[in-house]
Amino acid sequence: MARPPLAAKLLGSAALLMVAAGLFWGLRLVPPDAFQGDVQRIMYLHVPSVSAAYLAVLVTFCTSVLYLWKRDLRFDAVAVSSAEIAVVFFGITLATGAIWGKPTWGVWWTWDARLTLTAIVFTMYVGYLMLRAFAEDPRAGARYGAVLAILGLPAIILNHFAVQWWRTLHQPSSLLRAGGPSVAPVILWPLVFNIVAMVVLYSYLLVERARLERIRHRAADARLKRGRRG
Amino acid sequence: MIAELLRRTWAMTWKDVTVELRARERVNAMLFFAALVLFIFNFALGPDRETLREVAPGLLWLAFLFTGMLGLARSFQAERENECFEELLLTPGDRESIYYGKLAGTVLFMVMAEALILPLFGLLYNLDIWGHLPSLALVAFLGTLGFSAVGTLLAAMTAHLRAREVMLPLLLLPLTVPVLLGSVRATQAILAGEGLAGVSHWLKLLIGFDAIFLVVSPLVFEFVLEE
Which of A66, A101, A111, A169 has most Cβ atoms within 10 angstroms of its Cβ? Predict the structure, then answer.
């Protein structure tokens, strides 16, 4: 339990190799964008991060439902770990978005619909982590966290419509659109590869963080038992 | 079944109203706070009539929501301070009736505060409120209902936390951004004299938000109350 199992080590190595290869492909091998130049390359980090972040949100939602249903703390360990990683990936998304926005739009931050939505979800999940930290009883924290994650999903969907109507400035999505992707294959393939690499990295982080959470549970149980005896 | 739920919900709401009538600790504070917010905004933004007129709908809704937050926080903290939480849990029947009862109380107190804020707002910021009263009341009610539907659940949750005063707004505000956006947009259209026809999609969003959270919140409410 204390050392990572072989499978996790392999997953970690694969994540490292894939992210390194993907970034090398995107940052060095692909020709610069015809309009935006080298700035556009930040997309190879930006889009994979946001994909992994929303995947993490989905995983938190599903494992939260499972936790409330089955009451197995292993589901909660995955939920809280995934939420933590989501915050990191949303952080990377917002930072790379701002760095890209400055030379392209001329400002670090703008109240564009998708940017705003990402910021709202980011604050929701920071709130989730604070909620977990402030709960006195860990089991209550697990329940509250699960309830918040469940409320979060419809709220994200409604927020999506709200900010969409509110304003839109962001480039429309180049990948997920009717009639297939609008990107040249020379850009598309490294992007897809980077997304896969980031998902592998996410899986590795999730496995390791959830393992850590389980160790924490055991330590807490052991402390409780010793306290009762003494 | 439904009649039973309604009866229990009514009992819960009536309990909160009675407590309020005797102790007067919630509504008075909310009313005074709301008046103060409108007053303070004026200093923060300067006396320029045109600027104030432009930002007025946003100000109005911030006043509504901040006041609502005050009422929400009290609704479960009062139970905790008076050590009534266990008795609350021992009430027979579904926990849903506790949720709906608390929700009805919060909406009632918020609407009372809003009924004072609105004329004061029209007076201080020199806006024509009376001509648009029915549509303003509709938007205010839809927004208040959605905000309280999420807020009641989160207030029950945060009442047990350390740093509960901070955690309620921290969790509630990101979740209710659609309520704020929709209500402000609709209020803007009403005050500009355009009516509700142009903002029907915002009204639908508000109704959708209310419907979703009036169903989802009571479903997960029992997990919050578990001891």
Answer: A101
